[in-house]
Design a protein that fits this description.
Layout (H helix, E strand, L loop, with lengths): L12 E9 L2 E20 L6 E2 L12 E8 L8 H10 L5 E2 L7 E2 L4 E3 L14 H9 L18 E2 L2 E2 L1 E9 L2 E9 L47 E8 L3 H18 L11 E10 L5 E2 L2 E2 H28 L9 H4 L8
Parallel strand pairs: 4-7, 12-13
Antiparallel strand pairs: 1-2, 2-4, 2-13, 3-7, 5-6, 8-9, 10-11, 11-12, 14-15
Amino acid sequence: MRHNAITDVPGVLVGHHHRLGSGWASGTTVVLVPDGAVAAVDQRGGAPGTRETNLLEPENLVQRVNAVCVSGGSAYGLAAADGVMRWLGERDLGFPVGREPHEVVPIVPAAVIFDLPRSDWGNRPDTSFGYAACAAALDGPVGQGTVGAGTGAQVGSLKGGVGTASEVVDGFVVGALAVLNASGEAVRLDTGEPFAADHEHEGEFGVARWPGRPAELSAAPPDLNTTIGVLAVDAALSKAECRRLAVAAQDGLARAVRPAHTMFDGDTVFALATGARELSRAEGPIGDVGRAAALDALCSAAARVFARALVHGLLAATSVAGLPAYRDVWPETSAPS
């Protein structure tokens, strides 16, 4: 059964943990791959907050990761990855560095959003958030909107959030999980139409047409932000090929947010390849054109799926700390199913 989520990719699990209320509006989301996955990253914008991204370069030793942690809390929130490492280490999951099964180092790249203004100072995710998100991880439907790392997210004038989506292309499953937290806007404020509305698949956005009326909002001033996420596929790819998927997913971000990749954003996308199925191979006059064409189809899907995930995060979000959600401004629309 498909859930239109990144968990449609076999072997991928997602867990959220957050605190909302009593001075809190932040959280952590973990994308777990217990059997490991080849990984890469693409980072854009002028204000990134990341961890363990250098090891994802193709020339470096480690080939597979065990999880990706995305979190609120700005740079403080990178501590959530420690909890993910502890959870994995307790289950002997990680890069082997000794002779005994428990002698492993879990590989957990991470990225964070800037959501500090939505919580009282000092309230931000820590090690316990990452551990709890792992404990909650499942391979079924994924919570969206004001949950996990999207709890305190903001996109321009509106509340942001976590979204997910998936697509099948040439028999491969491509899925995305995105945390929409951008300096730019995600909708046309004069009509209510999301910039990526044309990527809607089978009525998933839940509306027949967009409101077509202006919002009683003014554009938000620049803030420290960052949209982050994870792209996953069940194909067998190299680290370099994974990076092409991450690059393509950033194209989806640019379709959904305007402007994207600003000096106030640290937009970061990870790509995971579980390796369940091989890409086709067919030698041609310019080399392995069959494999390149198959990868290109996955990249096109990556852009679409990431854009759709961002719209889902927008439509599913609920208001926090006086920050209006899309559904508050245009109540005639409905949240994605």
